[in-house]
Amino acid sequence: MTESRLVDIETKLAYQEDSVYELTLALRSQEKRIEQLEATCKLLIERISDMASGAEAGAPADERPPHY
């Protein structure tokens, strides 16, 4: 193998290692964002469920009586 070919291969390897590192950082960031979105969705589902169960229970407590 010639010296220039070896340098070319080492250069390509260095770029690939850098690309893998950058992709790993991006993946970590996406995983964190997905966890945040899942937590938000879970909270919204709980709130909607609470609202639905409150509607089934009858009139809300702050509704005006019919004689007003």
TrEMBL record:
Residues 20-47 form a coiled coil. This is Protein SlyX homolog. The keyword Coiled coil applies. The lineage of its organism: Bacteria, Pseudomonadati, Pseudomonadota, Gammaproteobacteria, Methylococcales. Belongs to the SlyX family. The keyword Coiled coil applies. It comes from Methylogaea oryzae. Keywords: Coiled coil.
